Amino acid sequence: MAVRFATTFLVEWLRIALQTRYVRHLQTDAFGSALRAEVSYFDEEGSDDILNAIVGNPESRLYRPTSPSSGASRISTRHPM
Fold it and tell me: Which of 27, 28, 30, 35 is deepest in the core (most CB within 10 A)?
């Protein structure tokens, strides 16, 4: 019984630690991409959507591939997996 409890506790603790680090990585990556983006991107997307993606829900990510015809730089963050 004690081994089962300890194992369950350890697995859950590791899961939460990994999830926290992953979310922090997504937020840092999105913030860095926002700093490197061109001003035209903020004009097109709106700063409130960008801020929401960085702070509120990093799993949703702002990712749209840039088409070759449009010269605008997009916030494009790659999935680490």
Answer: 30
Whether the per-residue pLDDT at 67 is higher than 80: the answer is no
Q: Which amino acid belongs to residue 66?
A: T
Domain coordinates in residue numbering, the chain: 19-64
Distance from C-alpha of 34 to C-alpha of 42, rounded to nearest angstrom:
9
- CA 61, CA 2: separation in Å to the nearest integer? 41
- Cβ 44 vs Cβ 30: under 8 Å: no
Helix runs in the chain, H state only: 2-36, 39-45, 47-51
Positive or negative: CA dihedral 19, 21, 22, 23 = positive
Band of the pLDDT at 13, cuts 50, 70, 90? very high
Residue 71 pLDDT level (bands cut at 50, 70, 90): very low
